[in-house]
# Entry
Amino acid sequence: MKKSLLFIGLLTTASLSAQNVDDQGISFNYIQQPSDPIKGTDIYNIVVDHSLYQASNEDSLEAFEMKLNLLESQLTAWVEQKKKIDQMHLLEMSKWQKATNAGTILAEPIKQPYPEMPELKEEVSMPLLTEEISEGIVDGKINIEGLTKGEGGAVITLQFSGLTLANIVEKQTGAGATKKYEYYAEYTMPINVKIDAPGQGIIFNENLGQTKKSKLINKYDSKYDFDYWKIDNLADYWKNLQLQEVNSLLGGLNNTINNRCGFPVKNYATEIYTVKKFKDHNYSDLIDAYTQAKSGYDLVYKSISRDEAADKLHKAIAIWESALAEANPVDNKARINDKVTALLNVNLAEAYIWLGEYTRADNYIQKAKISNAGAGKYKREAGDLEGIMNHLKSRELANE
# Structure
C-alpha cells in the first residue's frame, strides 16, 4: 500500500473520490529504535579477528612450499636419471665407434629416451590468498547511529573467513561466428558477527556472506584470449575483487547492525486525508487539521520520544475528533458521511500511532477496518497501519 517504513520518497496517491477527497502526500523522518538494543551503555568497540583467513593463508602457503620442494626433488631425480642415460649412451657409443674403427660393422646404438620432465617450480602459480583486511576500512564502514565508538562498552567482533570456494567457471554461448566464451569468478567470503554487551551477554551472533557469488570477468571470442589475459592480470583481479567484496559486505553489515542495534533515521511516506468540497459543506476545519498534523509530523525526527510533535498532533486530533462527533455514516449527503468518517478514523489512527498511544490508535484502526467506503480503501489503510503500529510498538517494548 502507500505506507512505507523502509523507502524514502512519496508514494503515488490516488483520490478515492475525485470530487471531494484529497490524499495529501507527505513524508517525514523518525528515529527507529533497535529491535535488539544494547542496554546500559551507548559505547561500542569493533574488534577484527583475522585468525581464520590468516590460518588459511598459512596452510595454503605451506602446501605451496611443499609442492615446490617436491618438484625440486623430482627435478633433481630427473636430472640424475638423464645423467645416467647420457653416460650409458656415451659408453655404448664409445664401444660402437671403437668397433667400427676396427672394421666391424655394427648398428649405431639408439639412445634410451629420457623420462618425462617434471613441472618446473617456476611455472607453478602462487595460491590464491586472502588479502589483509584493514582495521581502518572496517572502522570506517561500521558506524552505529545513536551510539559512540570507544572502549569499555559493547564489543563487536568481526571474524573474517576470507576468500573461500574460489574458482573460475567457463560458459559458452552462441555458435559459429557468434560463439562467445564467458568467464565468471565464483567465491564466498563468509564473516561471523558477534555483539557482546555488558550485562547482557551475546545479543547478536550471525554468519553472513555464505552464499556463493558469481561475477562476470569478461567475454571473449576465443578461450585463448582469456588464457593470454590471465597470465598478467588474474592475480590483480582477485585482489581488487576482494577489496570490492569487503566494502560491499561491510556496507550490508552496517545496515543490518543499525537496523537491529542502532538508532537510524528512517523516512516514512504517508497521506493525510482532507476534503476539498462536497455539496455546500465547509471542510476548512480539516484543512486546519492537516496543517497542524503536517507541522507535527515534521517534528517527529527531533527525538526518540517524539515529544516535540505532540502539541501539533494533539491539535489536529482535537479537530478530527470534533468532526467525527457529527458523523452520520448512513447519510451519504451528510458533511461527515461514511467516506469522511472512514478517512477521519485513518487520520486519527496514524496520529495516535506516532504519539505512541497505541490503545487509542488501535481503537480507530478497528473502526476503519469495518468500513467499506471507497471500495474498501480505508479498510486496507487500516490493515497497513496496524502493521506499522505493531512494528513500532515491538521496538519500543524491546527498549524498556
